[in-house]
Amino acid sequence: MLEAKDVQGVLAIMPTPAKDGADSLEAVDTVDLDETARLAESLVRDGVSGIMVLGTMGECATVSRSDYEAYVTCLLETVRGRVPTFVGTTALGGHEIAQRIRFVKERGATGTLLGIPMWQPATPDMAVRFYATVAEAFPDFPIMVYANARAFRFAFDTDFWRRVVNVAPTVMSAKFSNRGILRDVVAATAGRVNFVPPIGLAYEFAQLSPRTANTCWTPSVGPQPALALMKALAAGEADRAKAVADDIAWAAEPHHAITGSQEVFASYNIQMEKVLMGASGYCKPGPIRPPYDVMPEDFAEGCREAGRRFAELRTKYAQPSG
Known about the structure:
This protein is an alpha/beta fold. It is 48% helix and 11% strand. The protein has one domain: Alpha-Beta Barrel (TIM Barrel). Strand 3, helix 3 (94-106) and strand 4 (111-114) form a beta-alpha-beta unit.
C-alpha cells in the first residue's frame, strides 16, 4: 500500500470537464469524457507524479451519481495505474462515502481524497472516529485527508493529526495549506503523513520543513512551473527555487481578491479554479454546475488574467533549464 514517502513531486488536480449546458439544473450526462481522457493523458505525458480528482474544484458535491461513475471510469481507464490517482469520495453521509470508495477501489484508484461529511460540523471525536472507521472498513486503501477547514467547518488542528495517525493507519497524506502549524503536525505524525501544499505555498513549506516538503499540488494549468519548482527544491538550488516561486506568485496575484479572504474564497473556490484553468488554455473545464455557477465579473476577470499568466509560465518552463 502507498505510504507517505511514496508521494513526491507534483500532483495535478483535474476538473470534472463539463459539456455545454451543464450549468442547467435539468442537465444530465454532463461529463465531457473526451476532454477527461485527453487531459489525463496530457498530465501523465507532461510528468506529473500523481493525479487528484473530485475535490472542490472537481465539483464532487454537484455531480450526479451517474456522472461521477462515468467520469471515474473514464479517468482510471485512461491513467491505467501509470501514476497514483486519488479519487474524491466525500459525501453527506458515511454510507454514500463507503459506496463511493468501493466503486473507485474496484476500478483501480490508488486511494481516496476524503473530507468529512458536510451536513453537520464534526467534533474532534467524530472526525477522528470517522477516519478510523474508514481505515478499518478499507484497510488496504490509502487515504489522503482533504484538510480544508473552511469547507468542512473543522480545524484539522495538531491534536487531530496526533490522534488520527494512531487509529487510522491508512491515512498517509493530506491536501493541506495551514502553514502556521506545519512544523507541529509534521512532528505529531512522525513521518507517517505527507502534507501536500498548493503550488503557491510549496516554497514556503520547504523553508519551514525542508526534510518533508517534497510534494505540491497544482490545478490543471500545466504542471511545468510546479515541476520546475520541485526540481529546484530537490536539487537544493535555492536561488532558482526562489525565482520560480516568485513567478508563481506573480501568476496568482490577479485573483488575490478571492484568495485573500477565506470567506470570499469559500464562496468562489469552484468558480475561481474553473475560470483559471480554462483561461490557461491547458484544459477545457466547461461550464460550472449549479448552484455555484454565479461569479462577479471583476472576480472572473482576475481569474482569467491569472490563467493567462500561468500560460506564460507554462511556456517559460516547458524546456529544462540550461
